[in-house]
């Protein structure tokens, strides 16, 4: 069977996400290769966002600790090769303050009114997963969010933030 015939047979543009792998974008936006955010062991394990009936938040999301902020990712995980079929669709950050933490922020997405976020759950709800990198340094959180959004350009991030200036650390004395 020719590929064109296969594509036409199963075409459903409502569920189509395309992406580009751009090594130069990675290099330009991730200058600090020693950044601990690049080590998978520093990220918390993936969590299925919705419960088994897809009408509420999973118990694992509810159990995320409230004593940290950090960077988080929403990604779509396929079922054919789930260990390989993962596509990051949103990168966000959560400052750690008296009023905000990673637990509270994760739960807020269930009632988010932004059209792209609503569509993410409407179209891919049962395949939406969440992963986070805990951090309490709000300046680092901001820099890491910008760096990741600019390097990955996730589909549901509406704004690509201005590039941050990364200055090398210089000893004062």
From TrEMBL:
Domain of life: Bacteria
InterPro entries referenced in this protein's UniProt entry, alphabetically: GIY-YIG_endonuc_sf
Name of the protein in question: GIY-YIG domain-containing protein
Protein's organism: Xylanibacter muris
